[in-house]
Amino acid sequence: MALGTADISVMEMVTVYSVFAADGKAMKPHYLTSITTHDGATLKKFHSEKPTQAISEETALLMLHMLRRAVNEGTSSSLRSQFGLTNDIAGKTGTTQSNTDGWFIGVTPKLVVGAWVGGDDPSIHFRTTALGQGARTALPLVGEFLKLVKKESSLDSVSNAKFAVLPEALQKKIDCDFYKEDRNIFRKLSGRKEKKRDFGEKKDGVLKKIFKKKQ
After folding, report:
1. Comparing C-alpha atoms, which of 17, 52, 19, 45 is closest to residue 30?
2. Nearest CA-CA partner of 111 in 65, 151, 156, 69
3. Which residues contact 205 (CB under 8 A, 6 or more apart)?
4. How much is the average pLDDT of 54-71?
């Protein structure tokens, strides 16, 4: 399923999101890079298999730039405001099954990080989405990890890496404004239109509207 209920491991999720950062190429992950003796002699090295083109480079680039908006303007924006991360990051929060699972996947040009928060028993979950959503449970784990990466000078090439620039032709495909249309069932039936609002702009309550009229 595209959304929701399938049981997926963190490794599987990170593998999939890595495709977006790797120009659409999929690579089978491995846990070990090498085995050495106590004095540093290498007994075995493990090499990655040849990657396969899973999706087009264009699709991967479009996905990356859409997921960047989640960090810059959406549900993952606390990576900027709370954790002070300024480097190129794309991300996706996820919350499923009445807050049983909280997810966050953070994608940078050279590093993909995933976190899952939940219980072995699905009946154990947060009571509210305000507490159990991925932005509150899993995202902080990734945020703290990326802060540590940023502090490590030997990893500057990772934390300072940049995503490829989105060509103008592709930019037009995702160049749309955020807004909400607040037409309820009565407005829809009457044909009355509601003013379009910018993303995050709050709607005036009933009392505010009354006071405005009086003024």
Report:
1. 45
2. 156
3. none
4. 94
DSSP-derived letter for residue 73 is T
Q: How confident is the model at residue 199 (pLDDT cuts 50, 70, 90)?
A: very low
- Chain centre distance of CA 33: 27
* Closest to 178 (Cα-Cα) out of 203, 205, 204, 196: 196
pLDDT of 136 higher than 90: yes
63 CB-near residues (< 8 Å, 6+ apart): 20
Q: Which of 89, 90, 32, 23 is nearest to 60 (CA)?
A: 23
- Terminal Cα distance for the chain, rounded: 53
Please report which confidence band the pLDDT of residue 172 belongs to, taking 50, 70 and 90 as the band edges: confident
Q: What is the pLDDT of residue 49?
A: 87
User: Rounded to 5 degrees, what are φ and ψ at 193?
Assistant: -100, 145
Instruction: Evaluate if residue 208 carries a pLDDT over 60.
Output: no
